[in-house]
Design a protein that fits this description.
mainly alpha
Length: 70
């Protein structure tokens, strides 16, 4: 379940996704670093924290992720 309406936007400095697009990209990703690359961000420190914040806010499932930064 999304805690945000699907027409809301996930806004980060360099990306702008609607929540449905973001949720689908999270679901199709194998790891946090994979997700970051897919959305055009470098897999480095602060980007992980920002992604985790949005995943938590939206209540998205990341159980399929395989990397150590879950």
């Amino acid at each position: 379940h999304y805690t945000y309406h699907l027409k809301e936007k996930v806004r980060m400095t360099k990306i702008n996704y609607n929540t449905q697009e973001f949720a689908e990209t999270v679901k199709s990703s194998k790891s946090c670093s994979d997700l970051l690359r897919k959305i055009g961000l470098r897999p480095v420190g602060g980007n992980y924290a920002t992604i985790k914040k949005w995943i938590s806010k939206l209540g998205l499932d990341i159980s399929q992720w395989t990397d150590e930064k879950n």
